[in-house]
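Handout, page 2. Input:
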Amino acid sequence: MPGDHRRIRGPEESQPPQLYATDEDEAPAARDPVRLRPVYARAGLLTQAKGSAYLEAGDTKVLCAVSGPRQAEGGERGSGPAGAGPAPIWLLDPTRLEEERAAAGLTVALMPVLNQVAGLLGSGEGGQIESWAEAVRLGLEGCQRLYPVLQQCLVRAARRRGAAAPP
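Output:
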């Protein structure tokens, strides 16, 4: 039986991701709260998809492909435990375990060329207003440091696409 020549051949064997996961009971090591994981990004990796991207952030590796359009399914909204407690310690680029243990979270979306905040999404008990202001400042600094990496990724993808286009 002939193989499907349009598909990328995957490995003959694969390992479950749990094999490489860290033990959840381990206490996270103390770290600098403004540290970003090393990031590598590449856009347009898969030719079969309308759009694709590959991203490495520390030990996390993600390959995304877009094909569509189609209607998005309704998402579920959830909430975590909330209560009064000590002021949160804001971390830039938290790990999954740090995010699960956090009393509050904040996502910042920035348009770096215009230096304008495009969106803020906060949840949980963040304490005083000054604490949330510190979190926004930290998020904006992270966005500004990540911007050149993503900009370079998109420029390279545009050059590859332009070079591959027929005259």
